[in-house]
Amino acid sequence: MLDIDSLRMFEKVASLKSFTAAARALGLPKSNVSRAIARLEEELGTRLFQRTTRDVVLTLTGQALLERSTDIIANLSDALAYVRSLAGEPRGLLKISAGIGFGVNVLAEQLPEFLLLYPDIEIALDLESRSADLVAEAVDVAVRLGPLAESGLVAVKLGAMRRYLCAAPAYLERKGTPSAIDDIGGHDTIDMPGPDGRTRRWTFSRGGETVRVETKPRISVNEALTIHRLVSNGAGLGILSGYICAPQIMKGRLVHLFPDWSPPAVEVSLVFPSRRELSPVVRAFVDYMKEVSRPGILWMKDPLAMETAA
């Protein structure tokens, strides 16, 4: 009789195309995974994978088994999670994927309270600049910033983060403070790499008025925390997320330029695979993040204004 653990190992090898990667993702010795696949092939009387020195590729029968077993495994996992939830509070491992900056500055602040509320939940936090493949990497929930691409993922919007045009006092002493919003283009700027060369266009709004300023970044870097550090160290002007820069602005370590003008806010969403019902652990995390991200707590109001009002 086929056992569910062998099917899980088979699905993981198929999705990652590697016995080694599958064993690592499952937290098992590679030998356990190899033996499970061998038993599965012996019981079915057919090869499920073609193995070469470089690749692990599904055979036609392996592809057929994968197509028919994926939903079975997901539905069984959901059923087991639901039954466990009936016995008490959410429990088990929650794997979260997020960008480095959001993980360091937001999740590291919010997760301790979450763990106090749910003492039987454990967290594996995976912080990377790239977007994780939720299904292949067995991620339960991911934090995504900005507009979401069309996909089979389900999304819950948390809110929108304000951003600020900032510079270090040392930079302004050396280069001078821009007196008008259009002067930004003549300053050293730091930004993400652009899709069409190095010229970027920064957009700012004030009431119903919008201006666009062309800039040519002196430094292009693909990671938000590094942009923040470069701006803080006086390398130039940069647009920074409020959760990163607000504390430094309030302490005078960064200068918020043109406070009447606002760069576009960035939407924040939680995404998870659509083929699964939300487990109690994931549901607890989603509900908690929606609560701490409600208007006036984290994003929808200006954190600098909130500090001043306090």
List keywords for this structure.
disordered C terminus, Arc Repressor Mutant, subunit A, 10 helices, elongated, five-stranded mixed beta sheet, 41% helix, 310 residues, three-stranded antiparallel beta sheet, D-Maltodextrin-Binding Protein, domain 2
Description:
This protein has three domains: 4-86, Winged helix-like DNA-binding domain superfamily/Winged helix DNA-binding domain (Arc Repressor Mutant, subunit A), CATH 1.10.10.10; 92-161 and 266-309, Periplasmic binding protein-like II (D-Maltodextrin-Binding Protein, domain 2), CATH 3.40.190.10; 163-256, Periplasmic binding protein-like II (D-Maltodextrin-Binding Protein, domain 2, 3-Layer(aba) Sandwich), CATH 3.40.190.10. 41% of the residues lie in helices and 23% in strands. It has helices at residues 4-16, 19-26, 30-44, 60-86, 100-117, 169-175, 224-232, 242-250, 280-292, 303-309; strands at residues 49-51, 56-58, 92-98, 121-127, 141-145, 153-161, 163-167, 190-191, 200-206, 209-215, 219-220, 238-241, 255-256, 266-273. The strands form five sheets. A five-stranded mixed sheet has the order 4-3-5-14-6, with helices on one face. A three-stranded antiparallel sheet has the order 12-7-13. A two-stranded antiparallel ribbon has the order 1-2. Strand 9 (200-206) and strand 10 (209-215) form a beta hairpin. It is elongated, with a radius of gyration of 24 Å. Mean pLDDT is 83; it is low at 305-310.
